[in-house]
Amino acid sequence: MKRNLLFICSLLCFLGTVADMQAQPAQRLVNVVVSPDHADWNYNVKENATFHVQVYKDNVLMKNVSVDYEIGPEFFPTEKKQGVVLKNGEITLKSSMKEPGFLRCKVTAEVDGVKYEGMATAGYDVEKIQPTSAEPKDFDEFWTSAIEDARKTPLNPRMILLPEKCASTIDVYEVSFQNERAGSRIYGILTVPNTPGRYPAVLKVPGAGIRPYAGTSMGDKVIVLEIGIHGIPVTLPQEVYSNLSAGALRDYYQINMNNRDKHYYKRVFTGCVRAVDFIHSLPEFDGSTIGVTGGSQGGALSIITAGLDERIKFLAAYYPAMCDYAGYLNNRAGGWPHYYRNAKPQPNEVETLAYFDVVNFAKRVKVPGWYSWGFNDTTCPPTSMYAAYNVIPGKKELDLYLNTGHWTYPEQNTVCGKWLEKFISK
User: Fold this and answer.
1) What is the mean pLDDT of each run of 10 residues along the chain (426 residues)?
2) Cβ neighbours for 39, distance < 8 A, ≥ 6 positions apart
3) Which pLDDT score is estimated for 5?
4) Which letter, b or e, does each residue of 318-340 get, where b requires 16 or more Cβ atoms within 10 Å of its Cβ?
């Protein structure tokens, strides 16, 4: 019991940063509450969803407050109104959908020059949402060849002990290993038990952005490898990452997006597989038990890695990005980075991006997975995430926190921690 408690405490610290998650929004002076009339926020196609809107200040309904609102499918509102005065601080709005998807009601109140927003997003027959992105006929051949080509390059691993990060039972290293060609390296932080033995492992994959990584611990009985994806050391001064974010790596996800052999994410995806290769090379690894976890871009990379590499035995993914890019070309929300929300595709882009779309990797995930998101996510729209989730053939659990956007509750992390503990502590 004591060991399990210590494990879960360490795991929750790990999960607190697993997805580079946005913090839960702080309480604001004015609260705009949008409440669907179904407790589970789910509806049948053509059924009216009724949204009860209330605007509070100091927990009291505001009188004569002016609001703007819009209702309709995510990013495609069909009704918009401005300057609607709520005499008693509340109003009821209704709408429906004719096909599976998500209907969003967003309300904005302006009080003393400050805007306050509330929303609720109703799901319509969400289990019937299917991908719009096509699957290339040679999808498996392309990725099998990409991985085989990458493995022609020796890992050539390097490990530098970080004494200031070590603990009595844990050693921490800055590590790197070669990826898809000589000199192209993946960098990360490795946390490994220093008591003789063989241990399970977890690969932690990152959310979007360019940043340093400190490494995380899941206790003294688990190996954790946290990687960056940009081929640069992860312990440099913050100024380096800020400059890259504004300069050479700005909008990195758009680099060569119309060329499947040169698209930025090709080396990222092979790098995740090479990270599994690296873990398997460690003498402390038990040779079998390995999972992958992350959120947003990291949620996407978790599904992708599990879809590409049969050595992955389990995964936990928060609000996965990069799902169903083509959604916008079919009049519904697509996944981050929203390639076609405000732009039309260039030649070969749609065909190229299909090789990098999470929905096509999800079809190949056969291992147990825990997934979690909310209906109010505007970064990774739930329509896009369900398009991937619904085609996963492996055993899966979806833990919904309906009101959340692109952030998590502490209780959410606790559930994930307990789920992961089942696999890691066997």
Assistant:
1) 53 57 81 98 98 97 97 97 96 98 98 96 98 97 98 98 96 98 97 96 97 92 97 97 97 96 98 98 97 98 98 98 97 97 93 98 98 98 98 98 96 94 87
2) none
3) 47
4) bbbbbbbbbbbeeebbbbbbbbb
Q: Which residues pair with 57 in a beta bridge?
A: 30, 60
Asked if residue 357 lies in contact with residue 133, where contact means CB atoms within 8 angstroms, the answer is yes
Task: Catalogue the active-site residues.
Answer: 296, 377, 406
What's the pLDDT at 425?
84
pLDDT attached to residue 181? 96
Tell me the C-alpha distance between 357 and 355, whole Å: 6
Calculate ∠ Cα 232-233-239, nearest 5°. 85
Query: Which tokens hold the place of 211?
Result: 């940043």
As a whole number of angstroms, the distance between CA 404 and CA 401 comes to 6
Beta-strand relationship, 185-193 and 223-227: antiparallel
Q: Which residues contact 343 (CB under 8 A, 6 or more apart)?
A: none
Which amino acid, residue 87? K
